[in-house]
Amino acid sequence: MYNTHLLLIALLLHRSVNAAATATVNLTATLTISLPLPTGAIPINWTLAEQAIAFPTTLNIQQDLGQCTCDLTLNSCDIGCCCDPDCASLYSSLNYKCTGNTASNDNVVRMCSSLLAMVNPLASTNLVAYKDSDSNQLCVVINNSPIKGFYYADPGTFYQTDSFFSSQIQMNPYLFSRQSYDILSTLPSTPGTVNPTILAQPYSIGDYLVAQYTDIPGYGVFSLPAPSMSGSCNDGSPAKFLVPSSKTCNRIVPMGTAPDICKSGTPFDVSYYLTGFQLVTSSSTQMSLSSMSCIDPVSRTSVACSTIVPFWNTTAAICQNILTSITFNFTYAVSNGATTIISVNTTTRFSNLNLPSISTAVMQSFSAIWTLQNSTPQPKSGNPGYQIGKPILFGTLLTQPLPAIAYFPTKQSTLTLPQDIYSKGVLGCAQTPGERLEITFGEDVLSGCTLYYTYQDLQQGNCANVRSAAYAAVTGGVQGLSKVDVINMVGKFGNSSLVKVSEWVPVISSNIGDSSQPATNPGTCSSVLTALDVQFITAKLGSSNNPQSVIIGARIVKTWGAFTYRCILPNDCRNVGGLLPRRLQKFRVRASVSFVGVNGGVGIVQPFVPPPPRLIPLLPDDIFYPFSLPGN
Amino acid sequence: MFTIDSLSFKRHFRVPLVSTAIGDRILPFVWAYAGHSFWLKMNTFIAQPAVTYMRDSLLLVDGVDALFESNVMAVPNIKVTEFDADNDGIADFLNFTIRVPLNQFDYVRRVRLAMFLRYDLDSVARMTMQSAILIDESTPSSASSLFVNADLKILIRTKLDLTSPSTWNSPRAINQPLNIHGRIKYAKDVYLYRPSIMEVLKFGWIQYLSYFALVYTISRFIFTWAIRSGVVRSHVIVDVLPKQDGFRGHVF
C-alpha cells in the first residue's frame, strides 16, 4: 500500500518536471512578472517554486514523519516547542532552557534521574532515546492523560538523586501555616514604592506583564480578563509575556437604568482597558496605551480609541459601541541578546445591544497575540499531519508561470460555512466571514441558517434576489466569485507547501438538483442553492507509533432546491388586517462537513470486501497473559 | 540346579465395582460439586466496544415563555469528533459541541439530547446494536452552557447508561448562543455472558481432576491396606501362570 503511494507521488513529480521543462523557456524573465493572485491568497515565492520543480522531494514514509509536531507557526516561535527552529535565538536571549526534544505537550511531565536503571518499552529497546542529552540520566514521562482522568503534579526536571526521592517519600505533617502564603507576593502594590524586584530583570516566558498606575502610583498586573469559575469576567487575570491567549467571558450588566450602564468608564468602554496605566516594557521603560487607535464601527475609519464611547440611543432604545472583543497585538524584538516589547496595538469589535433592565450579561472576548518584529508568521494546521480542530488548507491551482498553489490562509479569505447568529434583534444568517463557521480538521459539522421571505419575495421577478441571497448565505460570496467556486485544491498535510503541488489534492466539485433556473410557479423560487456538503477522505501516514493525519481526497457537493411559500398557519395565506404582504416565512439552508477515514494507510478507497476467513487462526494477543507478545 | 530366573505370580483382590467407584471416581465429583459453582453458568469478559456515532441526534431545548414566543428557533450547529487516542482503530471518546443561537430574551432551563450510536462488540460475545445516549439535564436558572463529561456503560438487557457529572453555566450573555459541550468516553466495559459447552466442561474437568488426584492417592492407600489385611471381604484370584511378557507354559 505504502509503496504504491510512493510510486504515485514519484509519477506526479515526474510529470510536473516534464511539464516544467517545456515551459521554462525564459524562466527568470517570467518570474519577474507578478500575476494577480485570487483575493485573499498569500504571495508565492516563485524562486522556491522553481527550486521545488528542479529538486523534487520524495516522501520517505517509513520514517517517523511527526518529528516536531509542536512547530505550528512558520516564521515564528511556538513558545514551549523545543524543536522549533524559529525559537533558538529567542530561547538563548531569554536564557530559557527548553526541555524535551520532541513535541511539547502540556500533559506530559518529564522526570530524569540516575536512579532509574532501565525502561521496559513496548516496541524498541533503544535506551539512548530515553536518556537526557545533558546529564545522561534516564528520563520517564508521566502522561497526564485527560482521557484517563488523573493527574500528577509536575516535579520539574530534577537531576539530583537522593534528596528528590527522599522528599517524595517523606511524611509531611499537616499544618495550617503556609510560608508561601505569608511571604509578600512578588508584585508589591504599596503606593510610592520603587520598582519591584521583578522589574530588575527582564521578562521571561510566562511572566505577568506589569502595569504601572499613575493616579495612585503603584504596580499591578496588565489585565487581560478571563472567565472566573462562573464564567463572568475576572479583570485581575494577567497577560503573560510571550504567551498567546484567547478567552471569552460574560460581563455581568449591573442593576440600574440603561443610560447609567451605557456610558464611558464602564467595562463596555474600550478605554477601560487602555487608560490610567502604562505598560511596563522593561525596568526603565513604560508604554502608554491611551493614544491607541481603533476602527470606528460606523465610519470604518481609524480613530483614537478614546473617542469611541458607549452611549444610550434613546430613540432606538439600544446601547451603541459596546465593546465585545479586544485583541492586543504585541510586537517583540530580539536584539543584543534581549527580548523586549516594541509596540502594542489593538483590534476591537463593537456591538449595539439592547440592555434590558434585568440583570444579564454581555459576552466579551479578550486575546493577546505575540509577533516577532518584521516577521510574517504563517500558522500551520499541523507539522506535517493535520491536527484535530485546526483549519483545513484550501487553495487554487496556478499553472503559470509555474505550478503553485494560491492559498487562502485566513478565515476571512477561505471557505466558511453558514450559521445563525443573533444580530440587531434578529436570528439570521451570518453576514461577515468572521461570524461564519470555520472548517476544521476532524470535526464533523452540521450547520445551517435561516432566511426570511414573504410571498412577494418568491415571485418570479424577485427570484434572482432570493437566489443570490441564498448563495451568499451558503457560500459567503457572489456566485462565480465565491471561494467555493475558486477553490480547487486542498492541502494534503497541515503544512503543505505552496510551491509543491504534489502536497495538495484536487477538490472534486459536483452538483445535485437543478441549477438551470427554469420558470416556476408563483410563490416558488427554484434553482436556489440550499445545501453545501464538504467531504474529506483522511488517512494515517508514517510510523505506526506516531501516525500523521493526511487528507487524500476532497469533494464539495452543492445541492440546488426550491423555496416554496406554504400555507402553514391560517394567516400565512389570508390577508387579515392587511398584514399578508409583510408575513415572513422561514427558509433554511444547510451545510455539512464529513471526514471519512481510510483504515490501513494511504490508498484508493475501495468498496469494503471482508477478508476471507483464515484457515489457521491468528494467535490471540492474550495467549501468554499476563506476559505480552512483542509488538502488542 | 541353579535358579537362573524368577517370575512372580500376582494375587488379584476383587471387590464389587460400586464400592471402588464410589471411593475414588464419584467422591471427587461430589466433593467438587458440594463446593458450588462446579458448572460455570455465567462468566465475564472485559472489552472495549467499537462505538460509532451515527450522525443522528435529537435535541429538545426547553425554556420559559420567551423561548416559545420565538416560535421556531434558529438552526443549531453541531460539531462532533471521535478520537482514537491510542491508534488501535477503535474510537475512545466522542467530543461534541452543539451551538444553539438564541434570541436575546430566550431562557434555557432544560436540555434533552439523544445521540444515536452503533455499538459493536467483537470478542468473546459478538453483538451489534443501535442505541442512544440520553442526556436530560435541567437547571433552575437561565443557562448559557452545559458541560457533560460521561462514561458510556452498558447495562445488559436495559439500555446504555451514562455516568454523567454535568455542569451548567449561567447566566447567558445577551449576545451568546447556548453551548452544549460534551465528552462521552467509550470506556472498556465488563460484559456477562453464558459460556459455551466446551468452556463449561473445561472448568468442570479442572475441578474434578484436582479433587480426583487427591482422593485417588488417599483411597488407594486405604484400599490396599484394608484388603490386604482382610478388613474388607474380597475374592482373591491367584495367577495360574505369571502374566509376564513372553512367558510361555511350554518351553518348546
Automatic annotation (TrEMBL), chain A:
Record-annotated Tectonic-1-3 domain positions: 202-363, 382-556
Residues annotated as signal peptide: 1-19
Database matches in InterPro entries: TCTN1-3 (IPR040354), TCTN1-3_dom (IPR011677), TCTN1-3_N (IPR057724)
Location of the Tectonic-1-3 N-terminal domain: 60-149
Keyword Glycoprotein: yes
GO biological process: cell projection organization
Keywords: Cilium biogenesis/degradation, Glycoprotein, Signal
Pfam families: DUF1619_N, TCTN_DUF1619
Family statement drawn from the similarity comment of this UniProt entry: Belongs to the tectonic family.
UniProt name for this protein: Uncharacterized protein
Protein's organism: Rhizoclosmatium globosum
Automatic annotation (TrEMBL), chain B:
Protein function: Transmembrane component of the tectonic-like complex, a complex localized at the transition zone of primary cilia and acting as a barrier that prevents diffusion of transmembrane proteins between the cilia and plasma membranes. Required for ciliogenesis and sonic hedgehog/SHH signaling.
Domain of life: Eukaryota
InterPro entries xrefs: TMEM231
Membrane topology: Multi-pass membrane protein
Organism per entry: Rhizoclosmatium globosum
GO BP terms, alphabetized: cilium assembly; regulation of protein localization
Location(s) in or outside the cell: Cell projection, Cilium membrane
Keyword hit for Disulfide bond: no
Keywords: Cell membrane, Cell projection, Cilium, Glycoprotein, Membrane, Transmembrane, Transmembrane helix
Similarity comment text for this entry: Belongs to the TMEM231 family.
PANTHER family: CHST5 PROTEIN (PTHR14605), TRANSMEMBRANE PROTEIN 231 (PTHR14605:SF1)
GO CC aspect terms: ciliary membrane; ciliary transition zone
Name of the protein in question: Transmembrane protein 231
Segments passing through the bilayer: 205-227
